[in-house]
Design goal:
single chain; alpha/beta; Malonyl-Coenzyme A Acyl Carrier Protein, domain 2; Alpha-Beta Plaits; 2 domains; five-stranded mixed sheet; 13 helices
């Protein structure tokens, strides 16, 4: 099985969307996404600077829109698509759309609401996130507990993302766990922690108006790396995930159990293929950073006997 993976917040860079907008129909599709998410995604992905696209209200819909543009670009060229899908954090919205659980329209509406709600929750207290690289996982988690920080992302490959109060993150940087390196992340709040509880309620109310379908592809959840076969359950898990840890390490372990022999990461790509290269050694990866990478993805798909045709 070849698996499509969709990145989360922090993957965006200034101007990254420019080459994708040269594809037929991309600008028109993005204009529709902009209206649904209530963000000028064309400007955000081409001319806005790093600080402006760091805003959670902008970053989340921008990332999902880019992932969906690149997904449709591959679908327009490839004879078949990956049969497995998973998303990291906000990338779960992209994954649910690729799996057919959500329509693109529902996904873009929800990500607009999610981004605004999480930005509002983040503004209530001074919080943030830092990546902790290396060290013993139990020792890292113990140190975070001492500081009342949450291990918000278990990313695999020796990386845990800590989240919580800004003062506690400063203490973590000053006295890190043994054999680790702490890198502050450019995000606006402590995502996937109790600080996001108000955003969960907002998103849950919005999701009640959505009619999800059963997944048309194998779909993994960030909650515990398990496969989800019910559309409503997948949507409920996506809502709850806003305030619960991302277990990407367990997702990758499950990819291995399902004998994944290829990973394709959709735009803005790079972070998840980097993790896969460390945690899934020997599994070929393709990062769709620009349309020039589509041929490599098609070549990888041609090696798979378990692909699925047609857009979801």
């Amino acid at each position: 099985m070849i698996i499509a993976v969709f990145p989360g917040q922090g993957s965006q860079t200034p101007g990254f969307l420019e080459p994708w907008l040269e594809l037929d129909g991309a600008r028109e599709r993005l204009a529709g996404f902009s209206e649904l998410a209530d963000v000028d995604l064309g400007a955000a992905g081409t001319t806005w600077d790093a600080e402006r696209i760091r805003d959670t209200r902008v970053a989340q819909p921008l990332i999902v829109a880019a992932s969906l543009l690149s997904w449709h670009a591959l679908d327009s060229r490839a004879p078949a698509l990956p049969q497995g899908v998973a998303g990291h954090s906000v990338g779960e919205i992209s994954a649910l759309a690729a799996a057919g659980v959500l329509t693109d329209a529902d996904g873009m509406r929800l990500v607009g609401i999610r981004g605004r709600a999480m930005a509002d929750a983040a503004a209530a207290e001074e919080t943030g996130m830092s990546a902790v690289l290396g060290g013993d996982q139990d020792a890292v988690v113990a140190r975070l507990e001492e500081l009342d920080l949450t291990p918000a992302n278990y990313n695999g490959g020796g990386q845990i993302v800590a989240a919580g109060a800004a003062s506690a993150l400063s203490a973590l940087s000053e006295t890190p766990p043994p054999a680790t390196r702490v890198i502050p992340l450019s995000v606006a709040g402590a995502f996937h922690t109790r600080f996001m509880a108000p955003a969960v309620e907002t998103l849950r109310a919005a999701a009640q108006g959505v009619n999800p379908a059963a997944p048309a592809r194998t779909l993994w959840t960030n909650r515990d790396g398990s496969v989800v076969t019910d559309g409503r359950a997948a949507l409920d898990l996506l809502v709850e995930q806003v305030a619960s840890p991302v277990r990407w390490d367990l997702c990758m372990a499950s990819f291995a159990e399902h004998e994944a022999h290829g990973i394709i990461e959709f735009a803005p790509a790079g972070a998840l293929t980097g993790l896969a290269k460390r945690a899934l050694r020997g599994v070929p990866t393709v990062a769709l950073k620009t349309p020039e990478d589509l041929d490599a993805a098609i070549a990888l798909l041609s090696t798979d006997n378990d692909t699925q045709g047609g857009a979801a």
